[in-house]
Amino acid sequence: MDIFYLCPYLLLLEQGDCDTERLNEASDDFIRHLSHLHEEHGNHTCVFLHLQYTKFRLTILRERYHNNGQSHLVCYCHVVGAIMYVENTMERMEKRRAGSGNGEARPPGDGPPVLWTDDAIHLVELLYACHELKLFNNGEITLKQVVEYVCGVLGVDVKNASSYYARMRRRKGDDRTYFIDRLREVLLRKMDTDDEKQYRRNK
Question: Cα dist. 97→43, 45, 86, 100, 147 in Å?
């Protein structure tokens, strides 16, 4: 990849006189571009250098707007927001790389790692449902990428998610979504219990 590639969004910001609608459309494309890089590109170093270069150009733009007394412009707000998004993407990449270095999830802080300790098939069932609802990256990500990322973070070894899905499909009747149904059941039971406790306190 070209680490010096400039998205149309950055070119618009450098012009400094674009209307809000064009900026919003371009910013959506910019975010999609960064998301695809983060999730799909295999060369971590190239992606990181590209993000650093993008942040470098945005920082120059921010200082230019500020020094010229143009911090009231819509473009300036977009520049600040873009810098924050790039920084957050770089942080996520570093955390993901650090967590995959020894096969364990590394949460922020000094607490213990958060790991999935139930059956792997239950996590896959949940991820299949979430992917169908397009809950990750607005649906612009493959199921394979979702499974690899989430399972990697939670310390679950899932080499072939489709085999788990095949097992779910072979379940009979109401048991096909056993885990999701169980989640609904236990959450409703907790709500009912908490409602009852609150009712007794208010009597």
Answer: 12, 11, 17, 5, 16
